[in-house]
Amino acid sequence: MNGRTLAVIPARSGSKRVPRKNIREVGGKPLIAHTIQDAEEADLVDRAIVSTDDDEIARVSRGYGAEVPFLRPPELATDTAGLAGVITHALDWADNQGNQYDFICALQATSPLRTPDDIDGVLTRLMESNAESCLTISEYITPLQWAVSPDADGYLSEYFETGSLWGDDPDRSQDIPDITHPNGAIFAVTTEAWRTHESFYTPNTVGYRMPPSRSFDIDEPWELELIRSVINNPTYINCQ
């Protein structure tokens, strides 16, 4: 199954934990520039646009070759505005321009270690399957089954009561069932499914696995500093 893909890079101005994070310097260029360039280099992306409410983000994005065809309305730029409204707005804009797309892909600017090959991998997985959507997933660095929680007296016990830690035969990490989580880097869906569900999580969703070393999502100041320290480090990049 082939078709045309529209990639949307959401980048609103407000960020309480890391102010102006979309245009903060990371690896010698603004954070959002990494995602713009990934989208440009991905073979299966036919068109990529930045959806923002902010003139400065728009200017910086255009400076790195991005298309910023509109400023999104204020109601889609609040702290409570979800991704769904942003994607529908972008898709409606494309439809009104007479441009039809078979797939929609959302690329989060806060995941700068994602690669063009990851984008193509997600879209290939979606196009070659019977699924409606595909998203990037990553294994838990610490097994989820090892979660603990304090009681009213502050004493720890297993959160899931699996016996993985406190049982007669505690599990070794290599013996624990593999569980993954969405890492937020890439979401893709068929346009038909989006119009039905307005979500990247559909009844028929598949995953594309990314290693934890490329799965950082910058949401806190320490994560920004961590990514700054490794993004251009050849030793780190080569070990992924």
Describe this structure in words.
The radius of gyration is 20 Å and the shape is globular. The model has no long low-confidence stretch (mean pLDDT 91). The strands form 3 sheets. It has a 6-stranded mixed sheet with strand order 4-1-5-9-6-10, sandwiched between helices. 28% of the residues lie in helices and 20% in strands. It has one domain: Spore Coat Polysaccharide Biosynthesis Protein SpsA, Chain A (Alpha-Beta Complex). It has 240 residues and is of the alpha/beta class.
Strand percent estimate: 15-25%
Spell the H/E element sequence: EEEHEHHEHEEEEHEHH
Q: Describe the main β-sheet briefly.
A: 6 strands, mixed
Which class do the helix and strand fractions yield?
Answer: alpha/beta
User: Which strands sit side by side, in order, in the main sheet?
Assistant: 4-1-5-9-6-10
CATH class: Alpha Beta
Whole-number average pLDDT?
A: 91
> Fraction of residues in helices?
25-40%
Low-confidence stretches: none
Radius of gyration: 20 Å
Count the beta strands.
10
- Relevant CATH superfamily: Spore Coat Polysaccharide Biosynthesis Protein SpsA, Chain A
Count structural domains: 1
Apparent shape: globular
CATH architecture designation: Alpha-Beta Complex
Helical run tally: 7
